Amino acid sequence: MTYRFNSDYTEGCHPAVLEKLVQTNMEQTDGYGLDPYCYEARKLIREAFACPNADVHFLVGGTQTNLTVICAALRPHQAVYGAVPSHINTHEAGAIEHVGHRVLPLPSEDGKLTAGQIRHEWKMYDTDPSREHWAQPKMVYISQPTEIGSMYSKKELQDLYQACKDCGLYLFVDGARLGYVLGAPDNDMTAADLAANCDVFYIGGTKCGLLFGEAVVILNDALKPDFRTIAKQCGSIMAKGRLLGVQFGAIMKDHLYSKICGKGTLQALKIRDALLAKGFKFVTESPTNQQFVIMTPAQFEKLSEEFALSHIAYLEDGNYSVRICTSWATKDEEVDRLIAMINEL
Amino acid sequence: MTYRFNSDYTEGCHPAVLEKLVQTNMEQTDGYGLDPYCYEARKLIREAFACPNADVHFLVGGTQTNLTVICAALRPHQAVYGAVPSHINTHEAGAIEHVGHRVLPLPSEDGKLTAGQIRHEWKMYDTDPSREHWAQPKMVYISQPTEIGSMYSKKELQDLYQACKDCGLYLFVDGARLGYVLGAPDNDMTAADLAANCDVFYIGGTKCGLLFGEAVVILNDALKPDFRTIAKQCGSIMAKGRLLGVQFGAIMKDHLYSKICGKGTLQALKIRDALLAKGFKFVTESPTNQQFVIMTPAQFEKLSEEFALSHIAYLEDGNYSVRICTSWATKDEEVDRLIAMINEL
Amino acid sequence: MTYRFNSDYTEGCHPAVLEKLVQTNMEQTDGYGLDPYCYEARKLIREAFACPNADVHFLVGGTQTNLTVICAALRPHQAVYGAVPSHINTHEAGAIEHVGHRVLPLPSEDGKLTAGQIRHEWKMYDTDPSREHWAQPKMVYISQPTEIGSMYSKKELQDLYQACKDCGLYLFVDGARLGYVLGAPDNDMTAADLAANCDVFYIGGTKCGLLFGEAVVILNDALKPDFRTIAKQCGSIMAKGRLLGVQFGAIMKDHLYSKICGKGTLQALKIRDALLAKGFKFVTESPTNQQFVIMTPAQFEKLSEEFALSHIAYLEDGNYSVRICTSWATKDEEVDRLIAMINEL
Amino acid sequence: MTYRFNSDYTEGCHPAVLEKLVQTNMEQTDGYGLDPYCYEARKLIREAFACPNADVHFLVGGTQTNLTVICAALRPHQAVYGAVPSHINTHEAGAIEHVGHRVLPLPSEDGKLTAGQIRHEWKMYDTDPSREHWAQPKMVYISQPTEIGSMYSKKELQDLYQACKDCGLYLFVDGARLGYVLGAPDNDMTAADLAANCDVFYIGGTKCGLLFGEAVVILNDALKPDFRTIAKQCGSIMAKGRLLGVQFGAIMKDHLYSKICGKGTLQALKIRDALLAKGFKFVTESPTNQQFVIMTPAQFEKLSEEFALSHIAYLEDGNYSVRICTSWATKDEEVDRLIAMINEL
């Protein structure tokens, strides 16, 4: 009997979310997000992130949200900076190019971009004599936490946002796994801090307790007009939009979002500590729910007898980069069983 | 207390679907539609539509499905014929143009396209001396039932498909409300007939008993390669794809799909008959779950005291075109109440 | 020996233009339109059209100019109104859709759009309850003269522009054949009038005395930023941009542009008068260089023995719609020969 | 009086080309490349490159040609490999992304891609477990010569093409400066070799003796259908297409193309040798008409007193990377003057 630590979207949704879906199932509402559940969820989000003037829109999935936000924000010739391992630069099958925009990949060991890096890149562009012949950088895309588990401190985010503003760039924060930061013991960035330090971000639901759903929060007025129509055009609007309102309403209540994800992060940290104690090395330091650890093929195969882990890459020395991923749904006993097995390696 | 007859996506999902979602909620599966529930649902669909070699893909919503299928099928310069009132020509905010393709709207009183019309249009294009300077027609898009409630007979579909084949055009059938045809008393087209007479179609779930979901069925081998990647690129693939497999698995079992939608159609026909008996005129004849009836403003206002109906258009004579829409979820007593009120008008 | 009256791009360029190309051929200049010839031509254009603050850009051809201007002006979900026979709706192979935008075709007997029509269409959109689900009209595209030879009066243009401003729409004037209006005896619209009554227009060179080239004149500040980069991205910028500056410099000097095209228009009117005198009917009234006349097949064949004319369409009564097109290059003796032959029909 | 060595598009066209343009100026022909001059030029090209079954199309400029060819060849999710310094990855303002495709930049010191590199990259993609979520590589884009002056040997090209075929990739060769290779003393690749070892290439005219123009040569039948319509849709087709036929007809006659460009290459090599003799270092070895040399700021400023050179980049040690560019039009006495000045540095 295999237990999955290979991703954070292996189960359905948190029981509190499911309960509310069941409870409201036969109610009748208007469509397209114009129902009372969506309005209520928007209110809860504006409160939780201390952004009373934000526009909040509910979309279905991460790639969809990235392409819709970028499509709505940029003019045709404009491009978006992203770290080399960022989602838009890797696993979106060219979605950003499909809506016409270049992704400008920037090298990053830990998956994060820095203020200095942005200032440098912008200056390179801005002082190039053939500047007019380059795709024009206009947005910085980051993930919090990143695709490889690292997270931005409040200071790093503030610096980055300042750099963006100085260079005339929008800052867009992909929060597909935001809960695992908000609930992380080492996190020093509040929900309000995030909303105060970017132009647009989204609160990931799919990997954080919902069946599906991402809540786009638009802070910058310049990015607000006609977002709903562009989302409709991108195929990103649900007819039964209330399903997203119901779910986000349930998860945003009483800090459920950060509570359940925080528990998920703690599970990952327990596993990390066990690995560290056994002398394992990591691809990067991760204080969140995804751990990228280096294993020998034999170690990977041994653990795979009982657990599904993600084999991410072959390393040059013959070892594997392996992702171990927990979530809000991860069971204590399975964490214990995995740790026991690690200790026996 | 208002009851809604204004659309067929006002409730959640059929109890059998919800039950299976609840039952499977905490199971762990692989993502992106590679789970056992999706495989099982694909099998059921291939059986129900008698198309053992079809590729079946699960997407989320209708506009999304239309743009993904069209995007995957056409080369850049190719265009798609659709009736003037068709969804791609009206309520998709320019989604087809967004993926680069022209919609060629053809006039249609009843929402349907005919074989003769297609042959004529194609010939006009094909014999034009400046043919090379026109967007090239390559696909015919129809909806079964149409956006205004009419439906194709088996013969009409066969003729249309023959015309498409003769002209080198793909035939794509939007089945967002397919259940309301399959369960309609006047329908003479089986599920197998549909699959035998087009290149690609989809089985609508959102309006037919699911929370959400559309199952794309690709018959023509030329349209199969890399569909999953293009869907990913369009943001149309769910991480928790199994939610679609679970739902379609539940609804395709024991003909539940056509049974519950057939009931929905019958409700609409009861209302239609009451309206006809009172002498009301209709915008077009509809044997399915949407009725487009002509009312005076006073009649519309009177019914609106107790029911939500859709005011679709102002007619030139001052009257309204009004949509009355039933669904699998419509309650008998509300139909009776509406009919009673109609009789009192 | 056949003489061509089938289009206005059958010859190369006016001798004065050619002379200047020859004269400057071995000079060295900077590329991409940053040379003295382009600066000089921009100055001449700003003077001739009395628009000292306009941005002027030189592109190569008409379809290219249409797609570049529309691409630069619109956000993804925005659409452009054009008359059914307009170039963007017919002979551009879906170029506007290729850059993501819907063309909203409006019926027009004479190829022109009216202020009333725009106000009506906008109101239909603006008051539609499902407005958010439609492509959003944001621009009106007209051609002066139109594709079928008609032209806007000053009053018609003023009214149309006022309607556009009232509805929040940009007005874009395609002047591919502008010279044939500016030099037309019935024209009451000056160059300055044009520039004062739209947001962006272009001065057609290809059909008006140049080898090739269209000069985009942007009046509205909102449409100016980054136009060069978007044009580069669309492949519309010539490396040897000075070829365009040299040509436009030559043709804008001493009113050569309107003089030579005016002559072309007069040639067409002479032919028109001969046809009228013989009792021929026209598809629409044209005071410019293109005449669309209705002929029997026999008449068409007879004239085709000596002249190339454009057979545009088969009419329902079996007759042909035939285009007779003159240009700055049309020879007097050939016009006389054609008229003589018409008189003998 | 400054003489320009800063690019190869500073003058107009070769006298033989100009003469033919002048000679044919007032002739009447059909438009859009369907005239006798285009047919004749196509014939000459098929002969010169020994590809009797190739389709030949005439477009205007380089960026335009790249975007049109790539747009016509790829399905939406497909991507194109290019060297980091390649034109599509740098100076096209995001043109490839604008038509929806990702450029996959591969590192390259000398501007070239190797067979081994392509095989390795393809394998990485092909064996990735999440392959379906990546943009799909389908084309390799190279420039011959490269943007930094290097050139492929016959063997290198053959190996690369074999690798492409083995991996199911198209090979597209940008020949914007092809003449400077065909006429280079170190070149071992004939025109026929090129046509035998790729799927599509183009013969650059703009930088090689024409006013403007690029001739696309399509070898692979899969890339032929509807190219004209897609080019029209991209705004890449000239109304007066014969201008391209006339020019290519003149330049392809009697090997004029490689003769005049060969002379240009020799001029560059003389300058290179003078620089080498003085101990200058180069960014990369170039046997063609562009030399990228490393200079101190003082050296650059000194030469700039009499010559326009291109300052390409600031190097980390404070020196400059400087491009010195010759062409078919470069004058012997100016080369001598530049060499004299180099010798005095």
Automatic annotation (TrEMBL), chains A, B, C, D:
UniProt KW Lyase keyword = yes
Give the domain of life.
Bacteria
* GO molecular function per UniProt: lyase activity
- Name-wise, this protein is Beta-eliminating lyase
Q: Which cofactor does it need?
A: pyridoxal 5'-phosphate
Q: Where is the Aromatic amino acid beta-eliminating lyase/threonine aldolase domain?
A: 6-246
**One GO-annotated biological process of the protein:** amino acid metabolic process
Query: Keywords, A to Z?
Result: Lyase, Pyridoxal phosphate
- The species is Phascolarctobacterium succinatutens YIT 12067
One family from Pfam that matches here is Beta_elim_lyase
User: Which Gene3D superfamilies does this entry report, sorted A to Z?
Assistant: Aspartate Aminotransferase, domain 1, Type I PLP-dependent aspartate aminotransferase-like (Major domain)
Keyword RNA-binding listed? The answer is no
The family this protein is said to belong to: Belongs to the threonine aldolase family.
